[in-house]
Amino acid sequence: MHKQLTHSHAIKMLYKYIITLSFLLGNGAIALVHPGMLHTDADFMRMKAKVDAGAAPWITGWNTLTANSHSSNTYAPSPQAIVYRGYDGTHPENYSKLYNDVHAAYALGLRWKISGDDSFADAAVKILNGWSSTLTAIRGTSDAALAAGIYGYQFANAAEIIRSYSGWVAADQTRFKTMLHDVFFSINHDFLVRHNDAELDHYWANWDLCNMASMLAIGIFNDNTTMYEEAITYFKSGLGNGRIDLTVWKLYTVDGVVLGQCQESGRDQGHATLDFALLGPFAQMAYNQGDDLFGYESNKILAGSEYTAKYNLGEDVPYTSYTNSDVTQSVISNASRGTIRPAWELIYAHYHDLKGLDSKYTGQMRDLVNSESGGAEGGGGNYGPNSGGYDQLGYGTLAFRLEESESESVSTGAASLTATRGRKGNQLTGGDDDLLVGSDVDRVNSVSVRTIATIKNDTIAGPAGGAKLNATEVAKRVPAHTLWSFPDRVIDEQLADLENAGCGGIDGEPSSSGPFGVFSVSSLSVHDQQRPTESVEQIPRSNNTSDKSDSMIYRHGSYDMSSSSTNHSLVGSICSSMSFGLDKGYRQSILEGQLMENYVRNVATLLQPIPHSQNTYSSLYVPNALLGSATLRGGPTQKGSGTVAIFFSLMATSAFNLRATNKARIFDEVARTLRLKAFDWLQMALEELPELDHSKKDVCRSGVPQMYESAISAILTLITADIMEGSMSEYQVHLSGVNRICKQMRDQSIELDGRLVTISSFLTVLSDTTTVDLQPIPWSTRNGFPISGSDMFTDGCDLEVTYGITATLANYLHQVTILSQNISHFISQNLPIHPTLLSACHGFSKTISSWSIDQENLSSLPAANCNVSLGKIHILAFAQSLQIYFHTRVLPCTDSEMALYVQRAAEYLMEIEAARAQQERNLDLTASIMWPGFIASCEAEPGARDIWYEWWEGMRKYQIGNISKLWTVVKQAWAMRDGGLKEVPAWMPVLRCTGTKILAV
Fold it and tell me: Which domains, and CATH codes, for the chain?
């Protein structure tokens, strides 16, 4: 008898809290998009198209750019070791060297992207590398904070344009990131926190705004979500004048136009306009990452822009006396009235061209600046030699001007529940089941987790901070009987792909009649081999079924997993249990069939290290997905909405896998949209979890544990989708949620499927091994090590076939991490390590070294000799890398010992690939777990890297996105090690510097 779920509501709220907190802390739960600062790839495509067509006014902007000497590919940079802004009584100011070079790098980047001429990229790289290898500090007076802010955000934007250039190598990019972090961000953060120990309102708004912009830009370039979120949070709730409510602090309505008086309006108009030269880029960078700060607080930036533009156009505006701790300004200042800054194109393009909002004064100011600039906004060097002419990057006519046809309609009123998302007319509407597609779908869906994850006051944040949707409205947005929707072009392109591959059915008809329909996908899978063609019987339509509804045999029975051809028989079993009509769209069903068969045939097998009849990815998840499919089509709801989330998540994972085909972009688009649907249904699954208490008689109601298990399974499948996609932007949030739900259920003695417990526990152990900020754990001298009963895994949990490791080694892995946390406790307290801890470390070293595979019970390995051999080699590779992990986290070893461990791990992993190649026709394609290779290869010295390079490049054939991400980290670790950094583990400084989160699975 299960005990009651007295804390089920707490479980749901705790998981929501974990998600929300993770985003606020910037722990890697979102994926930052590249290029994604002032410009996206779509923007560069527009610029190029306009210039190539000679279209005005873009061609005028282009001519202005190319005529500026800063954009010459012969530009010679002047990097300085220390930049001084503000005379300190000793050192002359030299910050003009920095702002000239920064603007040159940006201008050269634009010329490269639009012209395609690599000589401009090479010239930009010369600037970026020159400064990153030279600059160590920014000093002077307090004005140093202005330099760090303005030139920090500008330098990061220039680098963001160049980051995709093959001539800017990884090691150089890493060094540039380090410079941004150590030199610029350190000042940005300190200024926003301390304000040089002055009163909070002492510094004018532009001081905060430039440092916020720099922090945001560096966060994006360095893939550091903590920085990014800190800047966003400061915009909304910071203590200084950069908070939007303090920058634009007084609102008026004049002739129907909302005007916003600014904090610097009474100071002078040069600085008042500077505020918007900074607010525009700040909001633009956030917008390109999915955060609409332009729309924040009813378009408050626009209100300030209209006020400032109107006054600088010579018209009157209302004014309220302003007072801070230093001054009282009773009248608006006319100093520098009419200041010409190339800053208005960006703001006008967003509010007027994109959103269709009245922005007449901003537009008139844009036109005034353009008329004074030769017909288009210029850049640094076009507005005089002083720093004011370099306060903004400029070239807005070329970069931001939009056509009227590219405007974005904005619905108003609560009933529409409309939340704009794209930059080219794409929107996500709450009232329908429309899903986002189009030119910006890559950018938008890559941050789709943010769309449904930030939960406050029991509401779900709408897309990009738009309209708020509560749980009921989410249900409306994802109706129970609604499938997923794509435009005809997406469906047609994929069906053409299938037809070209010869994936027809009987008599030329597609062999599919539902989401799990069967048709050959061998030419689309990562198997570069032909499977035998299987005959598929067409499923007759039930005579008792109405023409207007799909029918389903809901009792599916059990799925036999007893043979090596499990996945093929499973597909047939699933297919034979279905009979769907075509009213939802025959082509849509074919796509569903393609994705689900690819998952069952290929993906489920690929994700395990060796073929196995009890494959968790198919035996655990697929039957639940089948129930979810039935629920979507009006069938009985079993196990709650979690099964529907599983259904969409598996299809998303399959679509990510199919990016290996020649339809990579389309499948990527489909995958991200399906994953967004999975998020929506997961939210509903969490809302459905029953809340029970002691007084209820149904505390052990049938099906309650299953509802929790389906929700847990849905979260775990989203981790799998993250692994296949490769950004690894969400897995930590998912793991935290799963673990807390599992703990609450264990506390209530609710029995969970042991497979779910094993998966979540091992993924957590694996994640902890490569987490840079694990909390220190105090060492207890009263307990031995390891503590009795502390093992997380026991024999019989099938880790050998699921992850290629034994329970013994998995427990060792966990215990090494705990020892490292014990050591961190002493180091963090500046205390000598306790002798008993040192003794425990030495004793555990002997335990690990004495381990032998002969001690292990390997009965779970499949009976086939080739599979047993693969399993054993996998385990041995794990054992070698466990030694490396221990000696880099706990007790060091000699260089020769480390080299031996690294070499042995490489040999085992290469042996696995050789065995797979030899048995290719007899084995389903499976991929090794990446942890042994990742841990070992990072420590390889230069002379021992050839074998690792060969192994990593070979692993890319599996088309698992996470593999490429891990390989990138390894190469960065090598570059840092070769640059003289000797920190161990070698991956640690890479993850710390870049803010990257990894799961080496």
Answer: 32-406 (1.50.10.100), 488-546+554-691+706-728 (no CATH), 779-994 (no CATH)
